[in-house]
Amino acid sequence: MAIITILSAIAVPRYVGAQQRYRADAAAQRIVADLAMARSRANTTSTSQTVIFTVASSQYQMPGVADLRNEGTNYTVSLGAAPYQATLVSVDFGGTLQVTFDGYGVPNCGGTVVIKAGDVERTIVLNASSGKAAMQ
């Protein structure tokens, strides 16, 4: 019984840490993918596409893009829900909470998005000149 208790005391914190890293990575990768989608959509349709972040509710949306789960509503991602269970710590796109890609796929400014899952933080950086987002 003592051996099981000791092994549990070692394994549980490692499991929780791994789960938090997974959630933070998954949320960051989702944001990177959605910024790429907004950029691509703007470029292929030759119209602007905006991504709006809401820090208080840890979500973001793309006006004009239909949500696949709820037709008639904007594409919305809630980072606080499963599987991410993460929070938006900060969003800064030139002092605003949104970025707009023009018809060529170029963002109006670069910026950063910081997310947190448990004790693990990830930063997503959007390059102002290329329009590419990357997790750091």
List the helices and strands and how they pair.
Blueprint: H1 2-45, E1 49-54, E2 59-66, E3 74-78, E4 87-92, E5 98-101, E6 111-117, E7 120-126, E8 133-135
Antiparallel strand pairs: 1-2, 1-5, 2-3, 4-6, 6-7, 7-8
Question: Can you describe what's shown?
Answer:
The chain is α+β, with helices and mostly antiparallel strands and 136 residues long. The chain has one domain (2-135): 3-Layer(bab) Sandwich (minor pseudopilin epsh fold), CATH 3.55.40.10. Helices cover 32% and strands 34% of the residues. It is built from 1 helix and 8 strands, in the order H-E-E-E-E-E-E-E-E. The chain has one helix at residues 2-45, and strands at residues 49-54, 59-66, 74-78, 87-92, 98-101, 111-117, 120-126, 133-135. A hairpin with a 2-residue loop joins strand 6 (111-117) and strand 7. The radius of gyration is 18 Å and the shape is elongated. The model has no long low-confidence stretch (mean pLDDT 93).
Short description:
The termini are far apart.
Using DSSP, what is the number of strands? Answer: 8
- Secondary-structure-based class equals alpha+beta
Kindly provide the name of the CATH class: Alpha Beta
**Beta-strand content estimate:** 25-35%
Helix content: 25-40%
List keywords for this structure.
1 helix, minor pseudopilin epsh fold, 8 strands, alpha+beta, 136 residues, four-stranded antiparallel sheet
